[in-house]
Specification:
Blueprint lengths: L1 H32 L15 H12 L5 H6 L7 H10 L41 E8 L10 H9 L7 H7 L3 E12 L2 E10 L1 H5 L1 H24 L3 H28 L5 H4 L2
């Protein structure tokens, strides 16, 4: 009985130590990242900018960045605080006024067995048939008005006549298809294509992938012809196609902008 009691006490102490460790780590993370220099204050109102500034500055200017004070003497850091501080330097720079960090894609051949593409299959617990294609791209944060993700999402996700979706739906292979960025980070972008397959589509998933890749090759060839085409007629036709596509995107964005309901103040204020 005493031995059993001792074991129970040790387990309880270990659980308590783990809980305290997690708590200290969370507090250190909050202190390191939730600081005045990382804060964005958004205020929207009919008052003048001078009035709004008079309201805000006296209330927030006195805030003290205690973490910066501790950084002047890192010997004052606890083991966990030092760990959190070191880990913060691993993340890429996120400020828009800073240069983009080196391209660091989510998928790298040297890590994933040295070959492309990487195929990962899973068996879901519930009944579902889903195909996900991921394409690593360089960061587009500095070129929002020229982002390839915009036109790729628009064209690959298109559902009209002649689209990949229409062809695959007519073949009975899918029920839905959507395209967009999975990751939009300072050091990388990850384009994602989500496909909900039918039973027949699951059996012929390689045909679904090949159709989407053929679409990508067609887009690539069109862009290449518009840039480097030797035949002036073909080059002009390809350029007109790209301009028409960008025009569609601009029109849709304009319509969405003017039809969107008022959002939160953070999104409304520049």
């Amino acid at each position: 009985l005493p031995a059993s009691s001792s074991t129970s006490t040790d387990e309880e102490k270990e659980e308590e130590d783990s809980a305290n460790y997690v708590r200290e780590a969370l507090l250190a993370f909050h202190a390191r990242h939730y600081r005045p220099e990382n804060m964005v204050i958004v205020i929207v109102g009919p008052q003048s900018l001078d009035t709004l500034e008079e309201w805000v500055v006296p209330r927030f200017a006195p805030m003290i960045d205690r973490w910066s004070l501790k950084q002047k003497d890192t010997t004052s850091f606890t083991e966990i605080e030092q760990l959190i501080n070191d880990a913060a330097t691993d993340a890429p720079e996120t400020r828009y006024d800073k240069p983009l960090p080196p391209y660091h894609p989510a998928f790298q051949p040297k890590i994933q067995g040295g070959s492309w593409p990487v195929l990962l299959t899973t068996l879901p617990l519930r009944s579902m048939r889903k195909l996900v294609l991921l394409f690593p791209l360089p960061s587009v944060r500095k070129v929002p008005d020229r982002s390839p993700v915009s036109i790729l999402s628009h064209l690959l996700g298109h559902e009209g006549p002649g689209s990949s979706f229409a062809a695959l739906q007519d073949a009975g292979y899918l029920s839905s298809l959507s395209t967009g960025s999975r990751i939009a980070a300072p050091d990388q972008t990850l384009l994602q294509i989500d496909v909900s397959l039918t039973e027949d589509g699951e059996t012929h998933w390689t045909k679904v992938v090949e159709t989407l890749f053929q679409h990508c090759r067609l887009l690539y060839q069109t862009a290449l012809t518009a840039r480097d085409g030797k035949d002036e007629t073909e080059r002009s036709a390809a350029l007109n196609d790209l301009q028409r596509m960008w025009g569609e995107i601009s029109s849709l964005n304009s319509m969405n902008f003017h039809q969107t309901s008022p959002s939160a103040a953070y999104s409304f204020a520049p």
